[in-house]
């Protein structure tokens, strides 16, 4: 797809008129998706797609056209020609854009990861079905190439290709009791897969004990990295962008206006260098290696999109239009992973949270549910699974005054999201022991 | 010269392999989004997307292949890939897909009626209209963010099977948007036009139908009112819900739990399961006698209306809940075959790059006989909540919590002061049984959302909901942080 995209960009440039600038973005994937229910295949197939984002700039104006590219050079050249004609027509009737901003310093980059995925995906499917025999396995295996590109008529070219697999699954007992697991990487290693399966099967046994129903109240809890993923995942929507700070819509408003703080051990960084995503944005800006979002519990630098940079007169740092982190890392703490149960003492071990939303956005108070496997723990010993409970708690208590500690180990959590296309976002998070966590229903 | 659709049809008829079942679904979507934010026209964005999905059932397995390569060679490759996946999975499929796939041959055509086509208003005029609304939204310096937008999408689909089915549909969707946010130090309040839920099918006539041009001053006034309002109190009280909140309640606690693929367990790893089990259909009391819910694809102006679903099943109105009793599920032909339960024509895909699954489409709460004033008068101690802004529910779709943009306390049958950050929580199984009043048709609004998420791989899809205002007794209500 690399050569195809660059040749198409070269061609598109020949169609430009004087004083026009072209910014051309590309997303492509060749993905296999195999969906499982009750350890059998529900849906299996493949998707091949190529999407172009064509931004035509001229006389201080910009219009955008998203179009599908077929992969057939002649057909796509015609589509690009037609799209440019349409964009040019609209460019003539739209007003000047005071926030028009794109990279003018040419910085070309290439990042290509070799394809080491198995050629025969049927063997992978067979292995999953076999591993699920006698159990209730539900989930999805997805694998293949993901490609992103950028080209502009100033001569800049950026390319990013990666080939990865992500098997996201759960083993279920009766009702909603389940163990949630994932195996993601760039090479399908049968031994690693078997090890993860064996661990999941062992964890499933603990769920067979009679479940306990808790009363609403305040509990000491351990939030595993996968549970904290939901908390940080909610914050990603508007929590770290410059635009949300200025419009006062950020859920971290009290950190902006009142100097509210989290525990001093909380540090969050947008770590493009260590992440799995492309290092350039849709305006051609190359992302810095790191942006410190929260440091020492205090609000750090915002993510700044090209447009917000112009609107608020600060430098852009490669953030997307939504100014949402792609590769957020939260620093680990001091609790060794093997001591988590002891650090929890008596309380709830929460593996997964689910469906979070704000119940008071200004106060960063969020509600959500426990899901899959949560356990009641007494004196550091697992006692029984806990039926699902609703929580309603502020970030300032969760990661502030009531934070007992973070685990030393930090877990890489590649994003399983496939809306529109497979995601390359990721989080690296520790687990957190939290006191006085409010359960409401 | 033949059109892309005609060429694809001819190639498919020639190339469809000799298998148990083979289909082609072509989807072409053209869109335009015009937006003015904080008085500045955002870059105009248009879209032109097209692709096909081939589905093959053979030997009991099912495979699909989605591709944007619309050449003859691209179609041939997709046919081979889909057949390969069907063969690879024939011995480990969740059901015998060759036997379960819809085989009835259909011929059909459906098109959204459009009175005022999108192109009947020029782009400068659309920008002018939005600028005008934008100015009206910015009624006070405390309003720090405001936007007005129009989003139009025209979707053309062609569904063919090797057996001879041919269904062609063209749908036109309009989503008007207005929103404003006010701030005073550490307090922020927002108001939006129906929670951005005034989504309809049709043309620009939707703007008049929804009162788009009159809404901005009201939203601006209300957002300032919220900024100065006290917190919603914490108590158990009666709850009067406006349609722009009730649609989320229907969506999350009736729509999703009744999707047959959730009941079958397909979604347990992602969107979740359901508290509803197959034995409940035909006898389970879902709500009070006043609760009547329909799957209704027949209102041409509703957001998720169509003539046929994405597996060619003809769509028709059905009662899902009648007089409070659960009657049928929300599942297409395949789910009906797998469960043995009655369903509806709602096997749908977000586009050519995703396979169809059970989606709720238009799911409506039927009007009753209560006037709005009568409902207010019936409440001694309660709150009227408008416009959803927060939603959360467990994976069995039972324990829910919702937040609204605006609350108005009701005391002794009178609407009293406005309160901010109103929230309520409850359990689906008991909440609907406490439905005490259902509003008359004049309290009904036709709404929807373009963003219902579900499925692996993930799919976001349009759904429509129409509902009157309704009253629920004895609900846990609370506000924001002190």
List the helices and strands and how they pair.
The complex is a heterodimer of chains A (441) and B (482).
Chain A: H1 2-14, E1 20-37, E2 40-58, E3 61-68, H2 73-91, E4 109-112, H3 121-131, E5 136-152, E6 157-172, E7 178-185, H4 190-206, E8 217-223, H5 225-235, H6 242-246, H7 253-257, E9 268-271, E10 290-295, E11 298-299, H8 306-312, E12 327-330, H9 340-344, E13 347-360, E14 365-378, E15 381-385, E16 390-394, H10 395-401, E17 403-406, E18 411-414, E19 426-429, E20 432-439
Parallel strand pairs in A: 4-6, 8-13, 12-19
Antiparallel strand pairs in A: 1-2, 1-5, 2-3, 5-6, 6-7, 8-20, 9-10, 9-12, 10-11, 13-14, 14-15, 14-16, 17-20, 18-19
Helix pairs in contact in A: 1-2
Chain B: H1 4-15, E1 21-37, E2 40-41, E3 44-58, E4 61-67, H2 72-88, H3 97-100, E5 107-111, H4 123-137, E6 143-161, E7 166-184, E8 187-192, E9 200-201, H5 205-210, H6 212-227, E10 235-241, H7 243-255, H8 260-263, E11 293-295, E12 318-322, E13 325-326, H9 333-339, E14 347-348, E15 357-358, E16 363-365, H10 372-377, E17 381-393, E18 399-411, E19 414-419, E20 423-427, H11 428-431, E21 435-438, E22 445-454, E23 459-467, E24 470-478
Parallel strand pairs in B: 5-7, 10-17
Antiparallel strand pairs in B: 1-2, 1-3, 1-6, 3-4, 6-7, 7-8, 7-9, 10-24, 11-12, 11-16, 12-13, 14-15, 17-18, 18-19, 18-20, 20-24, 21-24, 22-23
Helix pairs in contact in B: 1-2, 4-6
